């Protein structure tokens, strides 16, 4: 493992994956909270014509030109979405779909045209579709690092404004904030995240890196700051795990493995997150149902005792089962463990009988909304 980690190419890939995880995690948080998950997909696909135009302008596979073209194309797609949403009856999802289709189709046309020119410099240009992490150079990392640093600095400086337009844009307008300008800036920054991830995972899979870490982080917290930090952490972890697995095996692409690692984090979060996870929720529901059933059985024993005018009246288990139309053995055992009832014999009847303990009598007399069962 140490031999693998000392590899210069892998080091470049891991640094790039870390930068990608940070920027996509932080900015993806706002995309998810603003219910614009499709935005990352749109901007990543819209980057393809920019990549091709950057290549045509530079005449070679120059990363600064290509990334600049991708950023401008993504920003143009974002402006198209804003224009369609504000000037037509189209909803946001329809506008995003139109921008995605048109820009990606244009990118495919330009890519095909470049490949048909026979220019040897275009070799590897199609790798931006699915990413080619191994081709990242140390000079590329400087560009990616500068973009990441700029994006994080902008988010930090405009944290309150971005937070306000994400949760209550109408209130932000009443405060005199330039909501439209802030939305355009935030969208452009998401395009920056797409630019950072082009070489790592490509335009096809980049949408997953914008959305997956933020979706996973959302399951663990209700605080924006914590969610952004967790999202960045999940993005970094998925990037590093995908990079190491790709380096330790032959013929495995780094980009798809990074996305798969992020998907595993999402699934794990959806299942095991304490508040919203499927498993904890199912356990809480089961516990609440059992707790309610315990309260109802306790109330049944209490009412039987009250009707007979004897707090220590022994209620027959068969009668309790008949009243609730189910076997209550497990519930009665649980109540006995908690010291609320105790089993007793009632001659000449051989069947089990149950009596309220003083603690159980007090519990049964407590109103349901004040009972410890419902707290």
From TrEMBL:
Annotated Gene3D superfamilies: ABC transporter involved in vitamin B12 uptake, BtuC
Keyword Transmembrane helix among record annotations: yes
Keywords: Cell membrane, Membrane, Transmembrane, Transmembrane helix, Transport
A GO cellular-component term linked to this record: ATP-binding cassette (ABC) transporter complex
Pfam families reported in the protein's UniProt record: ABC-3
Membrane topology: Multi-pass membrane protein
Location(s) in or outside the cell: Cell membrane
InterPro entries, per database record: ABC_BtuC-like (IPR037294), ABC_TroCD (IPR001626)
Chief localization: membrane
A single GO BP: cellular response to iron ion
Annotated region (Disordered), positions in chain: 342-375
Transmembrane segments: 12-33, 42-59, 65-84, 96-115, 135-159, 171-194, 200-217, 224-245, 257-283
Sequence ranges of Polar residues compositional bias: 363-375
Family per record: Belongs to the ABC-3 integral membrane protein family.
Protein name, as recorded: Manganese/zinc/iron transport system permease protein
Taxonomic classification: Bacteria, Pseudomonadati, Pseudomonadota, Alphaproteobacteria, Hyphomicrobiales
